[in-house]
Amino acid sequence: MSPPLFLLLLLGLTGAQATTDLRMAAAMAAGLCKTRPTDLVFIIDSSRSVRPSEFEQVKVFLTKVIEGLDVGPNATRVGVVNYASRVKNEVSLKTHRTKTGLVKAVTKIEPLSTGTMTGLAIQFAQNVAFSEAEGARKSPDISKVAIIVTDGRPQDNVKDVAQRARDAGIEIFAIGVGRVEMNTLRQIASDPLDDHVDYVESYSVIEKLTKKFQEAFCVTDLCASGDHDCEQVCISTPGSYKCACKDGFTLMENGRSCSGCSNAATDVVFLIDGSKSVRPENFELIKKWIFQIIEKLDVSERNVHVGLVQYSSTVKQEFPLGRYNNKKDLKEAVKRMEFMGKGTMTGQGLNHIRESSFTPANGARPGVPKVCIVFTDGRSQDYIGEAAKKAKESGFKMFAVGVGSAVEDELKQIASEPTADHYFYTADFKAIGQIAKKLHIPTCPEEDPCECDSLKKFQKKVEEALQALTKKLESMSKRIALLENKIV
């Protein structure tokens, strides 16, 4: 079935679930979906209440789910446990490495036709079917999943046994048929129950659950779907992706961004408004906002260093440049910042940046670009014009971020040119995360415009001298030609 028609069949879905189903269906239709590597064990009830014809329908259901899986030793391994009063390991996780062999083994399973010891079957699955001896893998990247199909009341305890299996890391789906007790299914299944408990009226309609389980094991190719945050190149991996860079670029420490320069050393200082108008709950949002920006930087001893200053009625250096050279320690230090909660002396804060933060005594490195990110939510109680001017004249790249009652004229005074690239404003603290995404801190040294002008002047003089020399050569050539003619 072609993808457009396949998608049209899904238009009847509604609400949030419709969006999820449609995205998944589109991925499957476009061939962007692969099943994630899983150790999967089916636990099937073949007690005497399950008639032979119904048991055949269960096997058809298993076969159709298996057909939608990537079966293989390094992909999905499948086992089948058959139970009634006793338990039988029909198919081991290590036995069949191909889909064809697996399906053939399922078709040969016969019902046991005795009692219903569901608890015993779950315990067997945990202890035996999911053991390394039977082919289960220890890797944390390999999910362990059990799908139980039952139609009756268990004759033993399932609640505690199922809990132990879930605690051991086994995700359990419970499918009930006909007169099954729903409470039993809920005791067996993993959370959320809405996703892990299913009921069908009879074995004749169990096949309708096939699609659900095919989608449950589906992993979209995130690179192909565009659902990734790689700056340049996205490389698909099972259930995830990794980022890379084009030739001439280097992948930064955050694993997503690319640097096009060999020297990405930059000193970055945050100047954060801690005045009482910010309020404690919003101050915590500011910390998260700082985390977002830190994630975009190549923080290391050699490259980006970060400092933090808070101001209110006074100015407090939270930590200087270079004290923390990895993101984890940086974030922990930002978390420890305590809200000052007094006035708003932005000008005083700007002077502190110029006179103290960007000095060698506080970790600033000579010859390294200096960037200051100012965050404020209100009008300054002191004059900022001169302080902002001196900061920019000192060669600092100034970013101004304002929220709520921040005065936009003041922010524009602070921001470097072009203002559109260095000034940001939003009315709501909850929207500052979007600013973090837009704010781009250059970590490659800019060309010195003076050096460029000098080079251009030199180039122009050389060109003028060459032109003059060419004219002289032409003149001399003409004279030589005249002399040759006179001699002849």
Automatic annotation (TrEMBL):
One of its GO terms (molecular function) is calcium ion binding. It is found in: Secreted. Residues 455-486 form a coiled coil. Its main location: secreted. Residues 1-18 form the signal peptide. GO terms for cellular component: extracellular matrix; extracellular region. This is Matrilin-1. The gene is matn1.
